[in-house]
Amino acid sequence: MRALNTGAEGMKAQQLMIDTISNNLANVNTTAYKGQRMEFKDLLYETLEKAKLKKDGKEATPSNLQVGHGVKVSSMAKNFSKGSFTKTDNKFDLAIDGEGFFEVKGFNDKTAYTKDGTFKIIAKDDGYGLATSDGYPLLNSNDEPLTIPQDISLDSVSINPNGTFNYKDADGEIKELDQKIKLVRFLNTQGLLNKGDNLYEVSEASGEAIVEDADTENKSQIKQGYIERSNVKVVEEMTNLITAQRAYELNSKAIKSADEMMQQANNLRR
Amino acid sequence: MIKGLYTAGVSMKSKMRQMDIISNNLANADTTGYKKDSTVSGKFEVALKNRMDKKEIATIDSVYTDFKQGSFQRTDNKLDVAIKGKGFFAIENDGEKYSRDGIFTLDNEGFLTTKSGDKVLGENGEIKLESDDININNQGEIYQGKKLVDKLKLVDFEDYKNLEKVGDNLLKANDKAKISDDTVQVSQGYIEKSNVNTIEEMVSMISTMRSYEANQKLVKAHDDMLQKAANDVGRV
Fold first, then answer.
1. Best residue in B136, B193, B203, B215 to probe A by mutation, most A CBs within 10 Å?
2. Are A4 and B213 within 8 A, CB to CB?
3. What does pTM read for this prediction?
């Protein structure tokens, strides 16, 4: 009986939906987390009879007779809408207002991208650098880990919206650092691979990283002293949770009914 | 005697075997690194021809193990490892056996062992550690402090059909193992859960039970027919 397997596919799909919702809810406080949404598609149909026109004395059948086989997950769309910004008092908490991503040198020296701007100062041989909480260094526009020279006082450093640094030197004059933070964007943000640790990696589907420079339209702006919160809306997730749970229940009812019907068929002969 | 009786009987035997497999899967729905079994039934004519051609196993049912990746669970235990990709840990237990179960512990001499006490093999043989404060990177290299102690031996096989389950989460291979390449990664602090999907097993169970019931009705119907033939035909 097809209903048994169709019901099972339905239950499996709703279970995956609940997994996604609970992942979103678990990350409701994660900086710059982008919520995920499941998209479903129906499975192939078995054509019992095709629609045909009146011909050769046979009557026309205007509609097809097709039976489906259930549901399948087609994709997991990430919602890249902006989360709200919160002011912190940390000098090196950065939030991106726009479509850009920070570029960091991730695990095994592979380039990774992130929107999580909670950077910490790390001491290096030639000065200070900025790194994520896992220690992955932030890259500058020359594709090198950002380095602030040792003799500059960190308290006087301020970061402009375009990623350049201003600092006060020993004489009290405002000067500009020779590096700026690299911001990139992608043609297809949906194609980015989630690596965990708030990092993304480029894939064939996302396209290569496009550096934001002076000519880019709608350039992203960096806000110093702010962090971007998760864009998960708890009310929406709870409503989806209720829907998914009821759908799970309905599919289990379909399986139970199919089971009872088979039992009746078996009991036709005592 | 009556062909229908034997057909129904064989079918019921086959369904019983399927139920055994399903209940074993359900019993192991929570076992680390467990890979579910499935049955495939073939046609009688094909099995008969195979037996006549003196090919191996000529039964109607065959059991195959589905080595699909299970999901990961985080335990934060330094001695728990999970494999991502096609590979197995090599365990020393009366010859080299293989397993996907990554819950390891240290025995009283400091060797890395499985829960049952069998030693885990690295590329240089048994792995001896000084404490459980180790770091395992995603290539399987074990670091104690800054020192590289050994690399976990991760192997793979050409044909999974020759792997046999021997209990204690171990698999025996009749083939030669080859060392896995870089595509296989391990994660420290995670365990790989069973790949049994309870919904699928429950639906298979319903389907098998109903099929068993239908065959049982068939046996009863044949029995009634035989009774009529034996007792009522010649009655005056």
1. B203
2. no
3. 0.78
Other beta carbons within 10 Å of A147 = 17
In angstroms, the Cα distances linking B128 to A76, B103, B142, B152 are: 44, 16, 11, 12
What pLDDT score does A247 carry?
Answer: 93
Which of B123, B128, B156, B165 has its CA nearest to residue B140? B123
**Residue A255, both tokens:** 């399986």
B226 has a chain A CB within 8 A of its CB: no
Give residue B39's pLDDT.
87
Nearest to A266 among B197, B199, B210 (CB): B210
Contact, A7 vs B203, CB < 8 A? yes
Residue B60 has a pLDDT of 65
A263 to chain B: nearest residue by CA? B210
CB atoms within 10 A of CB A254: 16
In chain B, which residue's Cα lies nearest the Cα of A257? B206
User: Tokens representing B58?
Assistant: 């000529």
B220 contact residues in A (CB cutoff 8 A): 269
Three-class SS string for B159-222?
CHHHEEEEECCEEEECCCCEECCCCCEEEECEEECCCCCHHHHHHHHHHHHHHHHHHHHHHHHH
- ipTM of the modeled complex: 0.72
